[in-house]
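User: quick one - fold this with adenosine-5'-triphosphate bound?
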Amino acid sequence: MNTSIIEVVDLTFDYPGFRALDRVNLSIAPGTVTALVGPNGAGKTTLLRCIAALNIPQSGTVRVAGLDVYESPREVHRLMGYLSDNFGLYSELTVAQGLEYAARSQGLATADVAQAVQATAQRMGLQDKLGKLASTLSRGQRQRLAIGQAIIHAPRVLLLDEPASGLDPEARSALAQVFKALQAQGMSLLVSSHILAELDEYSTHMLALNNGRVLEHRALNQPANGASDGPTERLLRLEFAEPAQAAASWLQMQPGVHVKRAEAHAIEIGFSGNAAAQAALVGACAAAGYGLTVIAPMTENLQQSYLRSLQAERHAATTRQVTP
Ligand code: ATP
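Assistant: Sure. Structure tokens for the protein plus adenosine-5'-triphosphate:
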């Protein structure tokens, strides 16, 4: 059984004289929000356009909800919303007309159009702009209208290329809430952005591209591969009531403990052990006179995870270059 909502197999895409995607393989689970990240020129826009069947690759396949996007682009577009990084709007249509046009072109039944226009305008904070021409909207309002047009047919999959560019902080925060609500309704989102702190707020997964290849694709808020030294090691942060310099050397001698970093009142450790072993460590701290106030797992945020992947890849690339 195919459990992916988006499945990309061996996708290669060349612009004239330049390979932008190089044998990309990935599988996205339904109901997830995937942050598509990578340096300028990594291939993010090209990948989104290939998934949306707007770029036809040299080789490889893309399936969305089980449909081959190159064999059935029209069917796929009915269940997909796509916001391009340089989207255009019909400037002589009002907000209501633009939304209505999007609804009708996506095949909504006539009886449902008015309700969809109202609900989408409400969702995107444009309810008091329905009569305004698109040409008279601010950049952020235009962005919100374009996103509204992309979601008006309640697609199963939403592809967004830099959706928050041009939005003020309040509108960005509102957009994050919209994305969370869409995910809660079962929609799967793939969102390209350079604003990692914001992606972190609503993303469940990170897909990092570099030089047209997948650098890393994983669930967020789980220990990262390579973030610990052993296969079962977890990162923990211990905080102490009193200055705890002496505790670091004492901890280092405890079973399963590997001290990573020590500050005045806090120590970060790698710990290989189950919950009972962790409870025993807490007891041992107390018995040794180190007043522990907090012991908590550490997770990487998206930015830390992304930068770590990129640095590891660049280090590996440099090593490949100097090794004959
Ligand atoms: P950014 O973060 O800057 O938006 P991106 O990750 O979205 O970048 P793409 O726009 O997919 O990157 O571009 C990938 C590579 O393909 C870049 O090196 C770019 O120069 C090249 N490229 C993009 N469009 C074309 C084109 N029409 N013709 C030739 N090369 C192109």
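One thing worth noting: Confidence is low (pLDDT under 50) at residues 224-231.
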